Amino acid sequence: MPILPDYETANILFDSYQINVPRGTFNKLQVYADFLTEYNQHVNLTAITDGQEILTKHFLDSFLLYHFAETCFPDSAKILDIGSGAGFPGVPLALLHPDFDITLLDSLNKRITFLELLKEKLGCAYTPIHGRAEELAKTSDYREAFDVVTARAVAALPMLAEFSLPYVKPGGFWIAMKGKEEISPALNAIKLLGGKLEQTVSYQLPDGDERTLYLIKKISPTPTKYPRKFAQIKQKQL
Q1: Does residue 1 register a pLDDT over 90?
Q2: What is the DSSP string of 156-190?
Q3: The CATH number of 7-235 is which of 3.40.309.10, 3.30.420.40, 3.90.550.10, 3.40.50.150?
């Protein structure tokens, strides 16, 4: 039996946020949820395994990223999702917006293996990559190569800024998906790395969980000395 609520029930939820999810896309979300919960029994990918919670805290939350930050995404946007884990928000975005060129980066190979298998099941176009954010950002193929970089609660914002902004092309956006974490401790890092806070968007999920999107625009190139090595980033934030 499918783990998600039926399409009609889910569509009421999506409609309440003015999000259009076609039935064909929802069918793929159903495949995604079923495979995630099955795979999660052997490899720990998420603590959220209830169908309703997967629908709201994973799928809806991923869709709301684009819903509330649509102006950050150009047509056929090139997107990097850092610390993608079980694929959120990158895979739902790839399903709803197949024109996007989405790369999923994670430092754990077991998660990349899951994302590769999921890609086959969904027939979805995205690119999983195994690597560390602070290392890959030093390579010419990835540095300042993306229109949008997303990161969902991977680390504290000052550290996350140093992981993320080097990948954003000037004029592009880093979108940090957080709970209640304040942006103020990261503002110095954002400035040093070439960014500027453009907008803060706060919203609630149906269960009352609070979410915040920080929309940071890249206004100048990131100095080549950033990101630093992980030990340095961890020892002293910018």
Answers
A1: no
A2: -HHHHHHHHGGGEEEEEEEEEEESS--SGGGHHHH
A3: 3.40.50.150
